[in-house]
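Reopening this ticket.

The earlier resolution said the output was attached, but the attachment link was broken on my side. Pasting everything inline this time so it's all in one place.
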Amino acid sequence: MEHCQASLRMRVDSCQRVIEDISLRLATEEVHPNIVDQLQRLNELLALIDHHMVNERDLDRIEGSTNQLLQELGVLFETNGMEALYDDPLH
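Inline output:
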């Protein structure tokens, strides 16, 4: 059970790190400040998650939402001619 919780925690932390990285990157770009503010608030909310209460279903929703956000922000990156956030894919 503890191994399962550790795995879930790593996956939540991974989503949080990606959102934090995007937020930091967009703060240096010419994008609307509200986008950066929203990402920072999302990051703060993810930090409040009690990892002991997260189950697989919750995590599927968190990861699905993170992936959807990445797809939508990918359009912003492409439209503004920004380079990729990471040199290599994370997954």
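Reporter confirms the inline version is readable. The first helix runs from residue 2 to 27. Helices lie at 2-27, 33-47, 56-79.
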